[in-house]
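A quick word before the example. In earlier lectures we treated sequence and structure as two separate objects. From today on, think of them as two lines of the same record. Here is Glutamyl-Q tRNA(Asp) synthetase written that way.
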Amino acid sequence: MRPVSGYVGRFAPSPTGPLHAGSLVAALASWLDARAAGGRWLVRIEDADTERCQPGMGEHILQQLAGCGLLPDEAPVWQTARVDRYQAALDRLTGAGLAYPCGCTRREIDAALAAQGIGHDRHGERVYPGTCRHGLNGKAARAWRFATWRMPAPTIDWVDRRLGTQHQDVRAEVGDFVLRRADGPWAYQLAVVVDDAGQGITDVVRGADLTDNTPRQILLQRALGLPMPRYLHTPLVLGAHGEKLSKQNGAAAIDTGTPAAARAALDAAAQALGLPAAPLQDGVEQALAGWVAPWAALYNPAL
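And the structure line, produced from the sequence above:
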């Protein structure tokens, strides 16, 4: 649960590939936010989706962070060591009537939406049509879903520290989202909520691509009686064609093999965050320290 006082932030990479320029922006932002608030900064390796994770990649990411001077204040935690917590949360939701098994395939969901005259953008959200809300109708359970339709207030209004007021009707825009997938892994939405609460996270600083996930997480926090952190979603680093830089589209790993290379990677991340250039003669640690005050002036992380 959240500490009575004090800031706790975190960086939570998935070990599906090495850190690239975009993920370093999120890491640096979360570290600076914690330091500007005089708080603690944690690292959590989000390896719950074991099929997508690469062996040894979590350790490699930690080495990349260390090369950039971004050292956590506690030993990193790994999601694969916390699966009992996710099961306990799912059991609570199921007992409260807020989670149910679903036997639908993606093809069946698309067909049900098409029958209702609802199109689907390939990159957009599939709004679950509620087929299994009242029973599996003889189908085998493939996943577990959160019953947004049972929540008294599925419309979420919240304030992002950079983007300002945000609004989403989760029931209408997302539907009953997945908590545990058909192939076994725990869904990001449930795991991140359980872990943030378990680690006492007060402030989540992460990339803007995760902004529309936040309302789902707030709904889960309310359903489980967990505290809501403050949120700040950082600018995205874009590729040559305007797409989000990501592991999926072949983003190159950052080079942290030498202090000069790590410093160059940090300089690029700081520039993406709107921070001033650090003196060329500064080492990694001096550059990091010099960005704390400008970050505080931009984003005011004081509690």
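Notice the following. Residues 1-5 have pLDDT under 50 and may be disordered. We will return to this example when we discuss secondary structure assignment.
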